[in-house]
Please model this.
Amino acid sequence: GLNVILVRVTPSADEYYRFMDHSMAAAINIDKYEDSAGEADSEATRYLDRVKEKLIQDKVSSVESRLLHGNAAKAIVDMIDETPDSLVALTTHGRSGVGR
Model:
């Protein structure tokens, strides 16, 4: 009977711009930031859909997915504040060493 909420947080186009080297940014059209954000959203949505389908096949009764934007830590904490009495489990990208 557990309600599972799958969450993925992606940067907004503004965040791509903010963290880009501004000497490079002058040469790049703002549309590139929106393209990058859109690609990240598409990949995140596909990932959430795959995980959701697997959980449904495993007979989890209630699975919901949410794609959030912004700073991952802040977005997750904000969602936790909206869903009191929750258990939160975080996973990593599986990167280690140089990849991290």
Remarks:
- Strands lie at 3-10, 62-69.
- DSSP finds four helices and two strands in the chain.
